[in-house]
């Protein structure tokens, strides 16, 4: 596979992700940082911190979709943003991969398979085989959504798993997933985490949570708020 060299690099170097004093600024000021991270290869790692633009931007950075303004970042032994991008899948981030409410599961799978295919290859409309191939590794023992189901009618859990499945068709060595608390109910969120743990048997999986995850074997890493957030909270308390 084209990413074998990335896997080899990850196996030869620990940790899989090493960030030192990375920061990002936007028009309104600091977005995140400075952040130091060491994330081991394989398994599921949860970045624990307040939800918002800063945490999403950090996830985007780890997946090679954004470049930090300062600091150093190594992902699977690579520092160039395009190389990081090529070795990472990104799912369930607002503004990046929302599902169209009116599109069916079959529509979405067909579109993704056509996007993945070489320009000269004819990709027919997704059938039950394509559904199993795309969604099976992510859904595991959970029921697959019907091809005819509109995305807007899916449960939170099924919609989240479908977004992950669509992002992860290439099965790169790194999978970055947005906030697990997008799935509101405890039972469904536990099932989501369980599926991410299963994917972590073959990939390095990174996600985020405001409260952390207590599932055995899951690594939780606290990501501190930027000082400006802490200052704002202190000012509110004093008021």
TrEMBL record:
Residue intervals passing through the bilayer: none
SUPFAM superfamilies registered for this protein in UniProt: P-loop containing nucleoside triphosphate hydrolases (SSF52540)
Protein name: ABC transporter domain-containing protein
Pfam families for the chain: ABC_tran
Molecular function as annotated in GO: ATP binding; ATP hydrolysis activity
Species whose genome carries this gene: Mycolicibacterium parafortuitum
Annotated ABC transporter domain residues: 34-114
InterPro entries, per the entry: ABC_transporter-like_ATP-bd, P-loop_NTPase
